[in-house]
Each structure stands twice: as C-alpha cells, then as structure tokens.
Amino acid sequence: MVQDTGLGQEMFITAYKKRGQQNLTCYRYTEDPITNNIPNELLSERAAMYCVSPPGETDWFKGTLYGSDAPELDDAFHRLTLQDKASNKKYPLPGADHVAAIVKFYDSPDALRVSQLVEVIGVLSHPDSSRDRDIEEQQQSAVDPAVELGSALHSLAASTPIIHAITYTPLEGLSRSAFDKDMLADLPDQAQEIRTHLIDYISTAFKGDKLAAELILLQLLSRVTAKNGGVKIGPLSLNISNFSEGDKTSTHIVASLLSRLVSHQVVLPLTVDFLNQATFMPKSIDENLHSGALQLVDGTSLIVDETGLSEGTLNDQGSVRNLQALTNVIQNQTLSYVFPYSQFDFDTDLINLTLSAGKSMLPSDLSLRLSPSYENGEGLPVLPEETLNLYRMYIDAAKFSEYTIPPDVSEYIQTCFVNERKTAVAQSKTLPSQDDLMRRVNLARLVSLSFGQSELTKESYEHAQRLDSACEGKSAKPASK
Known about the structure:
Blueprint: E1 2-4, E2 9-13, E3 15-17, E4 24-26, E5 43-52, H1 59-66, H2 70-79, H3 85-88, E6 100-105, E7 118-125, H4 130-141, H5 151-157, E8 162-170, H6 181-184, H7 187-203, H8 210-220, E9 226-228, E10 231-233, E11 238-241, H9 248-259, E12 265-269, H10 272-277, E13 283-285, E14 288-290, E15 301-305, H11 316-332, E16 334-339, E17 342-347, E18 351-355, E19 366-369, H12 385-399, H13 407-426, H14 434-450, H15 458-473
Parallel strand pairs: 6-8, 11-18, 11-19, 12-15, 15-18
Antiparallel strand pairs: 1-5, 2-5, 3-4, 5-6, 7-8, 9-10, 13-14, 16-17
Helix pairs in contact: 7-8, 7-12, 14-15
C-alpha cells in the first residue's frame, strides 16, 4: 500500500561512461553516487514513495497469493523489528507485524495515490549494510552528488529498505482478486445456489438471523461505483445491534467468519480510551506523514465494535477528530489528511459494518436489530477450503459484474416511489425522501448481483423494498442503562 507520496523527487544518473571505456554503463536501479561532473542529458528524475504491506491482509488471502511461502513470510514478519520510531508511526495498525520500503518509481507515477494497492517488481537495496553507509558518506562529500534527497527521505532512508521499481501495477477492481478472471466466468450461472448456502453460513455468526446474514452478503458485494458531485454511489453501510455489552465472543465470531471471505479486514474496538489515544486520520509532522487507523486499502472490511463502549470522558482527539473522521468515512467515503496549514480529503472505498449493543452513535445506511434463533455454542462450522474458495470467487465475480437498469424497470421504480409518497400523505406519515429512493435502488442492484443477474428486474427491486422495510421494522433501540 502506498502510505506516503510526499517523499519528493530526486535526481539520478541514467548512465555513465567508466574511465578508459567508450561504452555507457546503465546506472538505473542503484544508489551508487557519482562524484565527477555528469552531462545534463544523462540526468533524470525519479519519485520516492513510502509503501507498507497492506493493513489487515487476511490469512487465506496471503496463503493464496504466496502459496507455500506464506508461513515463512509470516515468520519473517513476526521476527521483523522496526527500530525507527518514525517508521512505526507510518503503519495504520500499531503493533501489527508488517514490512515497509521506500519505492523509487522511474516512470511517471502520477496515477498513484495514498492508500492505493500497488504490485511492484524491482531491485531491493538494504540501506543498513556497510556498503550503503560508505555510499552515504560519499554522497555527503561529493562535489556534485548524483542523488538529492529530501529531508523526509533522509530521515527514513537510514532504516528502511529501498526498492527500485522496474515495473509496477496499480491494483484496482478485479485485479485485486486472488482469482483469475477465467475462474470467475462461470460463477453467475451458479449464483442462486451459492447465495443460499452462503447466507446459511454467514447466519451462523449471527445466531441464525437470516435477514442479518443476507444484508451482510449484500454489503460484501457493495463498492463505490460512481461519484456524482462529491456523493459516492454504491457503498452500503450497516449497523447491527442487540449484541450484549462487552460480549467480545459474539463480535469476535462475526469478525472471524468475515475474515474467511474478504481479502482485507480491520477491526476497530471502540472504547473511550481507544478513541482518546488513537489517531484515525493521517497527519503530516515535520514533512513525515504519520498514518491513521483509517488509512486502509480500497475494499477493506472495516468492523467497528461499539459493544465495549462505556461511560467516560472523551477528549478533543476522541470526541471531535476521531469520531468525525469515522463518520466521514462511513457517510461520505472520504478521509481527511491533516497538514500543518491545510487539510485535504481523499476518497475511500471501505465496507463499513458497525456492531453495537443498542442504538449506534455512528451513521449507517441500514440499521438492524439482531434476532437470534440460538446462542453461539462451539463457534463457527468448519468448511472445506474448496467451499470457502467458491464463496470467495462468488463474491468477487458478483461485486465487479456489469449491471444495467432497463428503461421499463426504471419507470416502474419511479411509479412505485410516487405511489409511496401519495400513500404517506394520505396516512399522515413521513414522506420517503430522495435518499430513501437512492438507498433502495442501490440495495436492488446488490440483490440483482447476488442472484447473478446483470439487469435489474421488478422482482429484485421488490425484494430490495422488502429488505429495506424489514430493517425499518427491526431498527435498533437505545441501549438499556
């Protein structure tokens, strides 16, 4: 993940001629200094960015990506110690095992942005070797140094590996999937059967509540599909309440099940102490961008656990900044990055699920009060890896499928909306708003995709209406004191 794009540009030597030789020697992908005068035509620029291992990468996803090397990588992550405190502040999950590198891009990386997932193939350089220390001394004494490092890069280079990118690929959409497109091609034909079994499986984490399980499935298929005047179209935020206060077992089971289905997952255990001490927004300090807990890659499942909240006093950091940042991510899919004299909003695309005992203090598109059929006993059922992979492929295939609304269905939706408003007036009820309509249309899109349909049907829209109405009838109640 690109954590910080602000390390600046630096000059480097594209090639040079060794003394006594006629041929030019390629000089890309190195940190070696050149102390003699270099013609301007042999100078070029490269961009340096600070990158970290993707936060919240789930075990199955790492196993799929890295195969038999996954256990060795996990062991290496566990043994890795980042001595530089500045490096520790540049990872969203404090204390989590991770790796970091300064990646130097030679082709124009203008398309890269913070929090973007990128695959890099390049040449690795270890700055802590004696050779690199000698190079640093040479750079300091060089009359015309080949590389001009910015102050932010200087502060990190002493302890952070460097990767010279030979090629790189921003990972977006289906390119983030662990599965090939060919493997996903036949999934829509099996969608209805898979959907039924997957809802049954998800319901085991919600004590048999099939409505909650279906909404969770639809949320897993949601993503930002368009942006209209700053409004993100497509995401679906959920609040599921009626968990017992302080019941870590039930919320842990939910997180454990979802981690078997998604590639990236982060759990935020909201407590008064956590809100007061944590930092949710990235913040630039001394030209060094410190990460925040919400600086995550697109598609990350963000589970906010409110069941641990109790009485206490929130300070300015907890009540104003962190809660506002979390609200903006849930409501607007934007995260503010704080700089000394300014603040900039960057787009996010997170799957936001809030678990609470009573009424949540955070916004959500849909709120549902859990209706348990049984208590969780021995935990989650054990499924074969082949079945779990089928569920994962189904989610990826449905999430990124093409989708259209036929003109006759669009007209039908408008007619339903007009009639609903007329009925509300006649019964002196609250009129359904434009936001209500947009939510139902989005819900209908997710229903269609979950059934493997590429076009919205009247039946799918009516199904979405029933789901929406069911949530209104089972909304959260205030937590008992």
